[in-house]
C-alpha cells in the first residue's frame, strides 16, 4: 500500500489534528476548536466561493470536531454540496458527514435524497455503493419512502454488480427494519430467496441477513429458503478448507456464512422433507465431529471461527428440540468446554447449557455437570463467568438437587459480587419456593437470605414468606420460633424485623407457652428494634402490637403505655400518629369479642396456579409435563404462588369499618354506587395494609425472573371472565344501530389523557362537558349534555358500551374478558332548548384495558334523528396511584422490568413547545408520581405509579427524555405487563 | 445484528464510533461512557464477553486500542470477536502495521474501510481481498474526473 493513499493531501486537517493532540488541557483544546470553528464559519459565509477541496477539508474538520464530542450545528449544507461533486473523495467525505451527523431538516433531506437518486442511477458501482451506504446509515423513514421501491429492483437486476447487490441487500434490510410497511417484497420474494444460490459468496453472505429477517416476519412466504439453506450449508461443511479461497478464514470454510445459514434455519421448524432433514442432520453431525478433530492451526482465530459454527449448530439443535441423540452430543460437547482453558469457551458453554437444561431430552445430561458448575461458581476469577454459572445452576435445578443448589448459592451469596447479589437473592427465593417439600426448609432458607443479604431482599421476597406461612398452618409454629430466634441477634436486618413483626403478630401465641418466649419477652424483643427502624416498619410493628393485645391480654397495659407515649401518639409522621391513636382507642373501647373479630388471624391468601408451572405447560404443551408433576406443582406451587392479592377478606372489611376512616378513605363516596363485593380493601384498613404500604409491585415477583424468551404474561395476568358484571341492556327508544365512532373521537380522547374535566365534544347543536374523578380502580364521570339550540331535543338517549362487552355478545361469552364495568344512569329523554342535563357514569376497572368505552347519543332535533358515537375518555392511566420512591428503588425496579416485552418505547416529535412546567403538569395529570432527583439528567422526567384494577395491580415506570435541540422526545415505559407498557406509550406519545 | 462499534484507547479516549441504529446523542454518550468504564475495568485474561442492558458486549484489546461492539441477544459472540479481528486485519493491510496514530490521523479512512466490511450492523463482505481491492480502487478514483456524457467515464488519473 503506497503511503500516499493515507493522507490524500488534506494537510490542513493533519495539522489541526496534531494541534488538538498537543493541547495540554481541556480548556486549550476547546479554545483551539472554537478558533477553528470560527475560521470555518467565516470561510463558509465568505463571499469567495470555496473550491471543492477546501470544502472537503473543512467538512472533514467539522466531522473530526464532532467525533471529539463537540456539538456541530452548521456545515450540513456544504456537506450536501459535496455529494454532487464530481470528485470521488469529495463525494465520499460528503456522504460520511451526512451519515454521521444526520439532520432532520426537511429541505436538506430533499437535497440529500436528490443526490442519492443521481448516484443510484449513475450505473457507477462505486457511487451506487456510497449512496446505498448513506441510506443504510441514515435509515430514516423519509429515505425509506424515497428509496424502498427502487432498491429491490437494484438487488435482483441481472446486470447489477456483485458489490452493489451486497450493499443493496443490506440497505434494504435496514429500511425494512425502520419501515417494514414501505418495503413490499411481493414480486421479488422468490428472486431474493434464490440469492442463496448465488455464485458469489459475498452476495450470499449479505443477502442471507436480509432473508433471515424477512423470514422471521413472513415465514410462509420465505419457506423455500430452508432447502436452499440446507444444501448451501452442506456444500460448505463438506468442502475442504482451501476450496473457498478467500472465504476461508483461518482454515475454516466460510464461518460467517455458515453461522448465518444455521441462524436462518432457526426461524423454521425441522424440515418436513425427509431428504432435506437427513442432509441437515448430517451437516450437524459433521460439525459436531469436527469439534473433536485436532485443530488445523494454533491460532485463536481458527478455534473461534470453528467454535462459532459449533455453538450456532448447537443452538439449532436446541431450537429443534427433537433429536435426542444430537441434544446429548451437544451437551457432552459443552461439558468438555466447561473445563476448557479458554475463559471465553467456559463462558459460552455455561450460557448455552442454560437453554439445554430446559429440554426434556438433555435436562438429565446437563445435571451430570453440577459439580463442575458449582466449582465454577466458586473458583472462576471472572465475575461474568461466575454469573453464567449461577444462571446455569438455576436452570438445572429440580427437586432432586434443589437443596444442594440452594445451599451452594446461599454460601456463594456471602462473597458474591455486589452487582449480582440482588438477582441471586431472587433466584434462591424462587428455587426455595418452587422445590420446597418441607416448609421449615423454605422458611430457613428465606430467613438465611435475609440474614446474609438483607439489603438485597426486595419486598416481594419477604411478602412471599409471609403469605406462605399464613397459608400453611403446619409451618406457622416453626416460623414463629425461627423468627424469634433470628431476632435475638444483636444486629438484625430491618427486613427480618418486618417478617418477625408480622409473624409474631399472627402466630406469636404458638410459642408463648415457653417461658423463654413468653408474650412479654416477644413484645420487648420486637420493641427493642422499634427505634432503629424506618417509618413503614414501625407502622407494621404497631399493627403487630395491637394484634398482641388480642392474642395476649396480659400485654395490654404495657402496649397501651407504649402507644400512649408522646413519641407515638404525637409522632410527627401522620401514619404512625394515626395508627397509635386508633389502636389505643380500639384497645380501650372495643370489647374482647369485637377485638377478636377485628384482629382475627389473617385468612389464607387465595390459591392460584403457579405462574412458573403455567409457563412450563405453555412452553411444552400439556403432554410434556407428567400428571404427577402437575398435581404436585398445583398442590405446592398453587398455594405458594398466590400472588399479592387479597380477596374476600373479612377482617379487612371489619377493620376498616371499626377504625376511623383514614383521611384518604372514600372522600369521593365512589363506593356507594357499586356492589359491596367490588369494594377493594380501603386504604384506611390499617390492619391489613402491610402489603399495600409499599405496594408498588404486588403482582408476583416470580415473573421478574422468567427467562425473557417468552412473554411473561402468565395465567396470573388474565382478568376474570366475569359475565355477571354486564350492565343491563339500555332502554331502546330509537331502534337505529349506533353510529360508528366519529373519526375525531380518538383525538378527543387524547385530550383527556392528562386531565379529567373539560369539553369533550361540541357541534352546532350539542355540547358535551365532562367532569370525572377516580380513585383506586373506581371512577365516576359526570357528563353534561347542553342543548345549544332553542329547540327541544326529543327522545334523547345515551348508551355506553365497552368494546369487550360488544364482542361477548357476538362471540362466546366465556372467552371474552370484560375489562371495564361501566354503568350509566339513564338521562332525561327531553332537553329543552338552551338547557343542560347531567348523567352519571360509574366505572370499575376489572383488569387492564386498551379500548375506551363508547358513548352513543341519539336524539331527534326538528324531526331529524341525530346519531353520534364518541369514545369516553376512560384510559388506563386514570387508575394510576402515584408511587413515590427514591432514586435507588426506582432504578432497582427499572432493572427488574428489563424483559424486552415489558418495555415500550417511542421516539416522537414535539407537537407543542417544550416547556418544563407544562410537561410537569401533564405528567402529574397522568396520575403517576413525578419523581424529582432520580434521573441523573435533570432535564429528564421519571414517574412511577401503580395501575389499579380489580384483578391486579400493575406497577409502571416511565421516563421521558426531551431533546430540545432536535425537538424530539423519547418516551420509555416499563411495567410488569406488556400490554400496559404499550398502551401507556401510545397514549402518551400524543400528549406532548 | 451489531448495534454499535467503538474503538477507544487504554486511557478511555474514543477513536472511532459507529452506530448502526439511530440513537439520540445523549444515549450515545451514555453508551460510550458505560462501555469505556466497563471494559477498561476488566482484569486481564478475563473473558471477552459482557452483558449490558439487553445487549451482549464483545470486546478485545489490540495493543493500545480496545475494539468493543454491542450485539443482540441471539448473535454469536465468537463470530463477533472475529469480526473485530477481521477489521483489525483490514486496517493493518491498508495502513501497514496499523497503530493508533494511523486511526487518529486518518479517521475518515477507518470509517471507509469499516463501511466496506459492515453495513447496518451486518456483514457485507468477509473476503479480505475483495475489501482491500475496493478500497484501493476508491483510492485510485481520488482524482477521477467524471464525464457523464453518454454514461461513459473517461479519465483515470492517479493522484500521485
**Beta fraction of chain A:** 5-15%
Question: Please, what is the average pLDDT of chain B?
Answer: 84
Major β-sheet annotation of chain B:
5 strands, antiparallel
* Largest sheet descriptor of chain A: 6 strands, antiparallel
| CATH third-level topology of chain B | Beta-Lactamase
CATH C-level class of chain B: Alpha Beta
| Biggest protein-protein contact in the assembly | A-B, 89 and 72 residues
Specify the helix fraction band of chain B.
40-55%
Overall 3D shape of chain B: globular
Q: Got a strand count of chain A?
A: 16
Give the count of structural domains of chain B.
1
Low-confidence stretches of chain B: 143-160
- The class by helix and strand makeup of chain B works out as alpha+beta
Quick summary:
Chain A is α+β, with helices and mostly antiparallel strands and 992 residues long. Chain A is built from 43 helices and 16 strands.
Description of the molecule:
The complex is a heterodimer of chains A (992) and B (160). Chain A is built from 43 helices and 16 strands. Chain A is α+β, with helices and mostly antiparallel strands. In chain A, helix 17 packs parallel to helix 19 (343-356), helix 21 runs antiparallel to helix 22 and helix 30 (535-551) packs parallel to helix 33. The longest helix of chain A is centred in the N-terminal third of the chain and has 21 residues, at 300-320. Chain A starts with a helix and ends with a helix. By secondary structure, chain B is an alpha+beta fold. Chain B has one domain (2-159): 2-Layer Sandwich (Beta-Lactamase), CATH 3.30.450. In chain B, helix 2 (77-95) packs parallel to helix 5 (128-140). The model of chain B is unreliable at 143-160 (pLDDT under 50). Chains A and B meet through helix 1, helix 2, helix 4, helix 6 and helix 8 of A and strand 2, helix 1, strand 3, helix 2 and helix 3 of B. Chain A: This is AP-2 complex subunit alpha. Chain A: A 1,2-diacyl-sn-glycero-3-phospho-(1D-myo-inositol-3,4,5-trisphosphate) binds at residues 11-12, 43, 53, 57-61.
Amino acid at each position: 500500500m503506497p503511503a500516499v493513499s493515507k493522507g490524500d493531501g488534506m494537510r490542513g486537517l493533519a495539522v489541526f489534528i496534531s494541534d488538538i493532540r498537543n493541547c495540554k488541557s481541556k480548556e486549550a483544546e476547546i479554545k483551539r476548536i472554537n478558533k477553528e470553528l470560527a475560521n470555518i464559519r467565516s470561510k463558509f459565509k465568505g463571499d469567495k466561493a470555496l473550491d471543492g477541496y477546501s470544502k472537503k477539508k473543512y467538512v472533514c474538520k467539522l466531522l473530526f470536531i464532532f467525533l471529539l464530542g463537540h456539538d456541530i450545528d452548521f456545515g450540513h449544507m456544504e456537506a450536501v454540496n459535496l455529494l454532487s461533486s464530481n470528485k470521488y473523495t469529495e463525494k465520499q467525505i460528503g456522504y460520511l458527514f451526512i451519515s454521521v451527523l444526520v439532520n432532520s431538516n426537511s429541505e436538506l433531506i430533499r437535497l440529500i435524497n436528490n443526490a442519492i437518486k443521481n448516484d443510484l442511477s449513475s450505473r457507477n458501482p462505486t457511487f451506487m455503493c456510497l449512496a446505498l451506504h448513506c441510506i443504510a446509515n441514515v435509515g430514516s423513514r423519509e429515505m425509506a419512502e424515497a428509496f424502498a421501491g427502487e432498491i429491490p429492483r437494484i438487488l435482483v437486476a441481472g446486470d447489477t454488480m456483485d458489490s452493489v447487490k451486497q450493499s443493496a441487500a443490506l440497505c434494504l434490510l435496514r429500511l425494512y427494519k425502520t419501515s417494514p410497511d414501505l418495503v413490499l417484497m411481493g414480486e421479488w420474494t422468490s428472486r431474493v430467496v434464490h440469492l442463496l444460490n448465488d455464485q458469489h459468496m459475498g452476495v450470499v453472505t449479505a443477502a442471507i441477513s436480509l432473508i433471515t429477517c424477512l423470514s422471521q416476519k413472513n415465514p410462509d412466504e420465505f419457506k423455500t429458503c430452508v432447502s436452499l439453506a440446507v444444501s448451501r450449508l452442506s456444500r460448505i461443511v463438506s468442502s475442504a478448507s482451501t476450496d473457498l479461497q478467500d472465504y476461508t478464514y483461518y482454515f475454516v470454510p466460510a464461518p460467517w456464512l455458515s453461522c448465518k445459514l444455521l441462524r436462518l434455519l432457526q426461524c423454521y421448524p425441522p424440515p418436513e422433507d425427509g431428504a432435506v432433514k437427513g442432509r441437515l442432520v448430517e451437516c450437524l453431525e459433521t460439525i459436531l465431529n469436527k469439534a473433536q478433530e485436532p485443530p488445523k492451526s494454533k491460532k485463536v482465530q481458527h478455534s473461534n471461527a470453528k467454535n462459532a459454527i459449533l455453538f450456532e449448530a448447537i443452538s439449532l439443535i436446541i431450537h429443534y428440540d427433537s433429536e435426542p441423540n444430537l441434544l446429548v452430543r451437544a451437551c457432552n460437547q459443552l461439558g468438555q468446554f466447561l473445563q476448557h482453558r479458554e475463559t471465553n469457551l467456559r463462558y459460552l458453554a455455561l450460557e448455552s447449557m442454560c437453554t439445554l437444561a430446559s429440554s426434556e431430552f438433555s435436562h438429565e445430561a446437563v445435571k451430570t455437570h453440577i459439580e463442575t458448575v458449582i466449582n465454577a461458581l466458586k473458583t472462576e476469577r471472572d465475575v461474568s463467568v461466575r454469573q453464567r454459572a449461577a444462571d446455569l445452576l438455576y436452570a438445572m435445578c429440580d427437586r432432586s438437587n434443589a437443596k444442594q443448589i440452594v445451599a451452594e448459592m446461599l454460601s456463594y451469596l456471602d462473597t458474591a459480587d455486589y452487582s449480582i447479589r440482588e438477582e441471586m437473592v431472587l433466584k434462591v427465593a424462587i428455587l426455595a419456593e418452587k422445590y420446597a417439600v418441607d416448609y421449615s426448609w423454605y422458611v430457613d432458607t428465606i430467613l438465611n437470605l435475609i440474614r446474609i443479604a438483607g439489603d438485597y431482599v426486595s419486598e416481594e421476597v419477604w411478602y412471599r414468606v409471609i403469605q406462605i406461612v399464613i397459608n400453611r398452618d403446619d409451618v406457622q409454629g416453626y416460623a414463629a420460633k425461627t423468627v424469634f430466634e433470628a431476632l435475638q441477634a444483636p444486629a438484625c436486618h430491618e427486613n427480618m424485623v418486618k417478617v418477625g413483626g408480622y409473624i409474631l403478630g399472627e402466630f406469636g401465641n404458638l410459642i408463648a407457652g415457653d417461658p423463654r418466649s413468653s408474650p412479654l419477652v416477644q413484645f420487648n424483643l420486637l420493641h427493642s428494634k422499634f427505634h432503629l427502624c424506618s417509618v413503614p416498619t414501625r407502622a407494621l410493628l404497631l399493627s403487630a402490637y395491637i394484634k398482641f393485645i388480642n392474642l395476649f391480654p396480659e400485654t395490654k397495659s404495657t402496649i397501651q403505655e407504649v402507644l400512649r407515649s408522646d413519641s407515638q401518639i404525637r409522632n410527627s409522621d401522620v401514619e404512625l400518629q394515626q395508627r397509635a391513636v386508633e389502636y389505643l382507642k380500639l384497645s380501650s373501647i372495643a370489647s374482647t369479642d369485637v377485638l377478636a373479630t377485628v384482629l382475627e388471624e389473617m385468612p389464607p391468601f387465595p390459591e392460584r396456579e403457579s405462574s412458573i408451572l403455567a409457563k412450563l405447560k405453555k412452553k411444552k404443551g400439556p403432554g410434556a409435563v407428567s400428571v404427577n408433576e402437575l398435581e404436585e406443582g398445583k398442590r405446592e406451587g398453587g398455594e405458594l404462588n398466590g400472588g399479592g392479592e387479597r380477596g374476600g377478606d373479612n377482617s379487612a372489611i371489619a377493620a376498616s369499618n371499626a377504625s376511623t376512616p383514614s383521611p384518604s378513605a372514600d372522600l369521593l363516596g365512589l363506593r356507594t354506587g357499586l356492589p359491596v363485593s367490588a369494594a377493594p380493601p380501603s386504604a384506611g384498613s390499617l390492619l391489613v395494609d402491610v402489603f399495600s404500604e409499599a405496594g408498588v409491585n404486588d403482582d408476583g415477583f416470580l415473573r421478574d425472573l422468567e427467562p425473557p424468551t417468552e412473554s411473561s404474561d402468565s395465567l396470573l395476568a388474565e382478568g376474570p371472565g366475569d359475565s355477571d358484571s354486564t350492565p343491563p341492556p339500555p332502554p331502546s327508544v330509537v331502534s337505529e344501530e349506533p353510529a360508528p365512532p366519529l373519526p375525531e373521537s380518538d383525538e378527543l380522547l387524547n385530550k383527556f389523557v392528562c386531565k379529567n374535566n373539560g369539553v369533550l365534544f361540541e357541534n352546532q347543536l350539542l355540547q358535551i362537558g365532562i367532569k370525572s374523578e377516580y380513585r383506586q380502580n373506581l371512577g365516576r364521570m359526570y357528563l353534561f349534555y347542553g342543548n345549544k339550540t332553542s329547540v327541544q331535543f326529543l327522545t334523547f338517549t345515551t348508551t355506553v358500551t365497552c368494546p369487550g362487552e360488544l364482542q361477548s355478545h357476538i362471540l362466546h361469552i366465556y372467552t371474552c374478558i370484560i375489562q371495564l364495568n361501566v354503568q350509566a344512569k339513564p338521562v332525561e329523554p327531553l332537553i329543552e332548548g338552551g338547557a343542560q342535563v347531567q348523567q352519571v357514569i360509574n366505572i370499575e376497572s376489572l383488569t387492564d384495558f386498551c379500548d375506551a368505552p363508547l358513548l352513543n347519543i341519539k336524539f331527534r332535533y326538528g324531526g331529524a334523528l341525530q346519531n353520534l358515537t364518541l369514545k369516553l375518555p376512560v384510559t388506563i392511566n386514570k387508575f394510576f396511584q402515584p408511587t413515590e420512591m427514591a432514586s435507588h428503588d426506582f432504578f432497582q425496579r427499572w432493572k427488574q422490568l428489563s424483559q424486552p416485552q415489558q418495555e415500550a418505547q417511542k421516539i416522537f416529535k414535539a407537537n407543542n413547545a417544550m416547556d418544563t412546567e407544562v410537561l410537569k403538569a401533564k405528567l402529574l395529570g397522568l396520575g403517576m408520581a413525578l419523581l424529582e432527583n432520580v434521573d441523573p439528567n435533570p432535564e429528564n422526567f421519571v414517574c412511577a405509579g401503580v395501575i389499579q384494577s380489580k384483578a391486579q395491580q400493575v406497577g409502571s415506570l416511565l421516563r421521558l427524555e426531551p431533546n430540545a435541540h432536535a425537538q424530539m422526545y423519547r418516551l420509555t415505559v416499563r411495567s410488569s405487563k406488556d400490554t400496559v407498557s404499550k398502551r401507556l406509550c401510545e397514549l402518551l406519545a400524543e400528549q406532548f | 445484528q451489531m448495534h454499535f462499534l467503538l474503538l477507544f484507547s487504554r486511557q478511555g479516549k474514543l477513536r472511532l464510533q459507529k452506530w448502526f441504529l439511530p440513537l439520540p446523542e445523549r444515549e450515545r454518550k451514555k453508551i460510550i461512557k458505560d462501555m469505556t468504564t466497563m471494559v477498561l475495568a476488566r482484569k486481564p485474561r478475563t473473558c471477552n464477553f459482557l452483558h449490558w442492558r439487553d445487549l451482549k458486549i464483545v470486546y478485545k484489546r489490540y495493543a493500545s486500542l480496545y475494539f468493543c461492539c454491542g450485539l443482540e441477544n441471539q448473535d454469536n459472540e465468537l463470530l463477533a470477536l472475529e469480526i473485530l479481528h477481521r477489521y483489525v486485519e483490514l486496517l493493518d493491510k491498508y495502513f501497514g502495521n496499523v497503530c493508533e496514530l494511523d486511526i487518529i490521523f486518518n479517521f475518515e479512512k477507518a470509517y471507509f474501510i469499516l463501511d466496506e466490511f459492515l453495513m447496518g450492523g451486518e456483514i457485507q463482505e468477509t473476503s479480505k481481498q475483495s475489501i482491500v481491492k475496493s478500497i484501493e480502487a476508491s483510492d485510485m478514483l481520488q482524482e477521477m474526473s467524471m464525464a457523464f456524457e453518454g454514461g461513459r467515464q473517461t479519465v483515470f488519473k492517479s493522484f500521485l
